[in-house]
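Margin note from the TA: students keep mixing up input and output lines. Inputs are the sequences; the output is the structure of the whole complex. Example:
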Amino acid sequence: MSQNFAQLCLDGQTYTLPIVEGTAGEKAIDIRNLLKETGYITLDSGYMNTGSCTSAITYLDGAQGILNYRGYAIEDLAENCQFIEVAYLILNGDLPNFGELEQFKRDMKRFALIHEDMIHFFDHFPPNASPMSILSTMVGSLHNYYPEMDDEEDPYGGITVTTARLLSKIRTIAAFSYKKSIGHPLVYPNAKLNYCQNFLNMMFDRPNMPYVIKPEVASALNKLLILHADHEQNCSTSTVRLVGSAGVNLYASISAGVNALWGPLHGGANQAVLEMLELIYADDCNYDKYIKKAKNKEDSFRLSGFGHRVYKTFDPRARIIKKACHEVLETLDIQDPLLDVALELERRVKNDDYFQTRNLYPNVDFYSGIIYRAIGIPTNMFTVMFALGRLPGWIAQWREMKEDKVNSRIGRPRQIYTGLTLRPFLPMHER
Ligand code: SDX
């Protein structure tokens, strides 16, 4: 606890509030006893100024554009690691040694299949079903088939196994939902392939046209998943924590996170960015028209992929993804006009006072879709890809919340009531 403190003068009384200081120097006024001591609550719509928890998983600095997982810079992790190494780091606090990684890889292989009965679920979604609605349904349903969650003594149960099971199965569910949506035969997980190769193979291999896994494609996917792996208390992670705080099982908590991520203001932005770029491209690249719309308060149109609640400079992930965009398109010899549209839009936004004064820069979603598209992933699955990447973070945050026996209680924010005060009941004939 810091030696510093805050003083609050209320109704002629002075209250002293302790200060909490994090390991990176972030400071908070601890108001956990405010209501009990003062009778006041705080009001902070959108939690712009409110910390919901302490966490040792991810540190980000919005002013400097810094993002670290468990103390490692994402630039180092994205450059040097496999996604499941980073997943292990986020979940367990340290990068795995060789033996730990081999065991984690064995778990990924062991748990890659889903119960055959679950495959029938896909037959009953409408053809145009959103892959995010399918994902949240299937993830929530895993509890019915793999209920062992709490018995840590059981070597075949407990949260460690459930974590590996969920990490591996979400990849299979995503690929199977795609194959079902295009009427192609399912491609089952291949134990000889690593996490990313397996996903690509399940997505694109066909009996009549074997899919060749290009190392550059697998590497680009690996990098994207790492960059999405956690991001402290964003909307979907806070949802996973809040739902989990009620004692809900992990699968149902993650399913809630998938639904929160679906929103176009959050993870759904990567799909919205591609649709926006296509709109601008189809409209003769009339950038000025869409920039004007984005600035017009009367118009609900916003430039998807720009702006961020925390980053007030370039999102460090966007910087890495933008570079990877050029590399992937060059390696695959793809000329994607939408990349040119994205680059020109970013250039114009960068030179526009409206966006600069509001610190609106490209975020993680602005360039990621260009890579997914180059890989062959359909636009309506972009947010599913975000969920695959974010899963280790969601699980780690859920477990951190569960393990914090001092502070973890059911999440239940308060409110300030602004409705009608008590009034006498009116019988029907008097209304
Ligand atoms: C993610 O939180 C996380 O960490 C999320 C995430 C993660 O990894 O989990 O990083 C992933 O969700 C990234 C964000 C993806 N969303 C988008 O790209 C959607 C477009 N962006 C905006 O909707 C917006 O910037 C948000 C939602 C991202 C942030 O919203 P805030 O923090 O509530 O900011 P705001 O809406 O109050 O905007 C401040 C000003 C407003 O103008 P004024 O009222 O000051 O005049 O900036 C304007 C806004 O109108 N503004 C935009 C804009 N974003 C903000 N104007 C045009 N286009 C935009 N994209």
